[in-house]
Amino acid sequence: MFETINGMPAHVLLVHAAVVFVPLLALGAIVFAVWPAVRHRIDWAVALLAVVAPLSALFSMLSGNAFYKMREEDGTPKEFLDQIGVHASYGQRTFFFSLGLGLVIGALLLLLRRAGTPKALTIALSVVAVGLALVTGYFVVMTGDSGASMNWKIS
């Protein structure tokens, strides 16, 4: 399912969704967490990104695994496969941190809709969201950089 799309490796197409949606989730989460005055204006967008961004990272990761297997079977040199492995490890972290960020934002959205939620809990979740957003942003940049650098070195 994740090997090819119309004859092209699916990864080179699907990765673009993660490149867009994961940083948008990180940015939206930071704004949502630190700027209470705009929360009611962007809550629907942040909620949507909390679902779409981790899914796009998951699809990128699964298609990347399929691409790795295709490269392994076609006799790609071990040195290049090792570089793909480094890229894949960044991609896995991007997925897991974006999933964690999506879950924290989802919890924050739900708690803010409930009356009587302790302010300390909202602040704590906001701090966690900002931290996860920064880590997620770091890993999406490292994933993209390692993939692009690897690609341009062999071209």
Name its key features:
single chain; 155 residues; mainly alpha; two-stranded antiparallel sheet; 4 helices; elongated
Report the C-alpha radius of gyration, rounded: 18 Å
Q: What is the average of the pLDDT values?
A: 94
Going by helix content, strand content and strand pairing, the class is: mainly alpha
Q: What is the tally of helical segments?
A: 4
Characterize the overall form. Answer: elongated
Question: Could you give the order of the helices and strands?
Answer: EEHHHH
Strand order of the largest sheet: 1-2
Span between termini:
27 Å
Report strand %. under 5%
Biggest sheet architecture: 2 strands, antiparallel
Ranges where pLDDT stays below 50 over 5 or more residues in a row are: none
Classify the helix fraction into a percent range: over 70%
DSSP, total strands: 2
Short recap of the structure:
The chain is mainly alpha-helical and about 160 residues long.
Description:
This protein is mainly alpha-helical and about 160 residues long. It is built from 4 helices and 2 strands, in the order ββαααα. It has helices at about 10-35, 40-75, 80-115, 120-155, and strands at about 5, 10. Helix 2 (about 40-75) packs antiparallel against helix 3 (about 80-115). The chain is elongated and about 60 Å long.
